Amino acid sequence: MNIGQLKTKVADWLDRTDLDSQIGDFVELAAQRIYRTARTPTNERLLAGTASGGKFEIPQQFIAVRWVQANDVTLTAAPGSEVYPDLAGQPQFYGRVGDQIWFYPRQTTDFVMSYFVIEDFQADTDEPALLQVATDAFLYGALVEAAPYLQDDQRLAVWESKYQLAMGTLKVAADDADLGDVVAIRSVQ
Fold it and tell me: φ and ψ at 103, to 5 degrees?
């Protein structure tokens, strides 16, 4: 499904033909809300490189770090405002400072970072991967955004509950992708 098809679906669900310019806003607001919280394999990326001087630029579309490794050691997150001037040796911590990730202690080192992104959500022909796996979340999210505009308070609770259900199942699916279907095996006595 592309964004144009999603907009058509929202218009169909609203049963309105007079909201063409507003429906784009509803979809954009829903996408912003979803990407602020969605942490799934679908919007996860890997970046490998060298942190020159113990820092590197945050990639475009970056939302959040999942993990960072320097020289095959997983680093601990620390607020970017904390400075560790007395540390020496292998980096142990990382923090965001402006549009960069800094390592502490600061030294040039190879790294791998797993992070989450906001996908392109502009052109009607764009087909964001997250939209493919969470069409329901985008649809109900757009309907939630439309309800106040239309002063349709009765539908707001319905759309919000369906949106929450869709986001909940998306989180469960993401957790299952990380952990697999964990089955407890008991010993027979």
Answer: -100, 150
CA 186 vs CA 1, 41, 179, 182: distances in Å: 44, 31, 19, 13
Nearest Cα residue to 93 out of 72, 79, 109, 113: 79
Distance CA 124, CA 140 (A): 18
Mean pLDDT by 10 residues, the chain (189 residues): 96 92 95 92 93 92 93 87 70 90 89 92 91 96 96 93 95 78 47
- 44-51/109-117 β-pairing: antiparallel
In residues, how long is the chain?
189
Give the SS3 label for residue 24. helix
Burial readout 116-133 (b: 16 or more C-beta within 10 A, e: otherwise): bbbbebeeeeeebebbeb
Q: How far apart are the first and last CA of the chain?
A: 52
Contact predicate 10/146, CB 8 Å: yes
Structure tokens at 144: 């939630």
Q: What's the whole-model pTM score?
A: 0.81
Q: How far apart are CA 127 and CA 19, in angstroms?
A: 22
**Residue 184 half-sphere exposure, CB side, CA atoms within 13 Å?**
2
Using the Cα atoms of residue 147, residue 152, residue 156 and residue 158 in order, give the sign of their dihedral. Answer: negative
